[in-house]
Amino acid sequence: MTDDKPHFDVRLAALLIGVILSTVDSSALNLALPSLAAHFRTDAAAVQGASSLYLIGAAVAFLPLSGLAGKIGTVKVYRFSLAVFALISQILVISPNLHTLLALRFIQGIAGAGIVGLVPGMTASTFKEHRGWALGMVSGSVAAGTLMGPPLGGFLVEWFGWQSIFYINLPFGLLALILSGRLTDLHGVGLKEGLRRSLHAPRFILALLSTAFFFVQSFGTNLVWPFYLEAVGISPSKVGLMMLVPPIILMAVGPRCGQLSDRIGYDRISWLGSIVLMFASIGQGVSGSIVVGLLGIGLGRALFQAANNAAVLSNAPEGTTTVASGLLSIARVTGQALGSILAGTLWGTLEHSGTQRAFLVVNLILGGVAALSGILIMGRGRLGQKLSGE
Question: Does the keyword Transmembrane apply (predicted)?
């Protein structure tokens, strides 16, 4: 670890713009779906594919693109993905029919995987001495993109039409492309060998599993909050404003928490984050106070995310950084899906027996998931001590 202060530069800007570009695109598009349905004279179910097919395209491409990047270099794949993403955005606005638009969104999702899937590994390798801080900046940028997307999308659709959401990707994509020339290039052993080495690295596997459990807890909480808050009489608009609190906290203090993890250790800070998440979930469930959850979970996410991402990439076997970055994205998506399924199923089963009881039980289970993540972190820490003592 180093005591030198980290500095923001054009290399980090190239990575953060790429992350914000893809995040804003995904979150802003939801505001355009009614306009898309009207434009193509169809219904909400049909145009929903514009969002879901993008996510499916990204999910299936994370590992293949990571393996390709290991062979030909991450900078080439990242820059090509930026160019394709921006180009498809311009073609989307002239789609002759909905089927063409949906197919293009699937392809754009693949390009998005080449951006988001490679950013963690490129960030960690470009800023080796300050990877916790740099990954905290990435997490903060994801939060910023999530925050900016809905209001920006609403403004653009109202004033300039749904096409404007895609038009704005071109200047930002080109800017990221111009700034990305100085990024640290990574080469690896390829997908098959990378997976083989990763499966034989227990600390890396434990770090990945703790990531997945973190996102189970995170997305499970995000799903249950609106159901609970609206059930106790809070309007949807106020619920939306209240749910801005955790990403604002993550955006504000995430880089600081990552910088702290650079100094005192990734395992310590990510473990602390998991404990804060556990107590926040249990606390809001027992008390019924959403304030406990919003503040505690916001802080827990800030402590956990950058530090654990840094731990994942630090424990990746030699030559597997690109594949590790892809696996990190897969752990995130898997955790998000499982968290939504778990919380949705539990709430649907329990809400008929009372809102407060359902909220308590779901939060106790989600608190237990956060505790499991903390146990995995302790396990990788002890394993590291054992390996260093041999």
Answer: yes
